[in-house]
Amino acid sequence: MGNTALLVLDIQNGIVPALENLDPYLxxxxxxxxxxxxxxxxxxxVTTGFxxxxxxxxxxxxxxxxxxxxxxxxxGSTSTQVHSAVAPLxxxxxxxxxxxxxxxxxxxxxxxxxxxxxxxxxxxxxxSGAVLSTVRQAANMDCSLxxxxxxxxxxxxxxxxxxxxxxxxxxxxVSSFAWEAGLVxx
Length: 186
Prior knowledge:
- The protein has 186 residues and is an alpha/beta fold.
- Helices cover 34% and strands 20% of the residues.
- A 6-stranded parallel sheet has the order 3-2-1-4-5-6, with helices on both faces.
């Protein structure tokens, strides 16, 4: 599978409270992150955040203009922090994005290339947002992709179900349990 990184998309305080069954999701994700660390897989957290005054948000960007009006997701605020149940450890990478895709306008691509990572395992929220955009862009960049179907989620479960069929065209779909079972502990 090449050099692999586990991407954890938008599992931050300002986003995950919208999920039903949050605690079981976070417990499963925490276990998967722990297993990835034990197998020496790089953990990369990608969060959404903006500078004070929101210079990154155009009034034409309907996805984010609400955040600027509400005053949410300012870098350094509680809403931009990774949820404590899956908090980063020393050596993990945190990338802040200003758009839906983890790649657009971030240093994710150069980070992956610098670390010689060519395989991504994707988790996070939301299947209809960050996961979809990131999978599509990573596929266009010829990354080997695995989507952990039980660790990608959406506030609209029907979207998640349909999008799994889309992801399947560009990524291997597996459960976190099956993926962890295939890891070699170091």
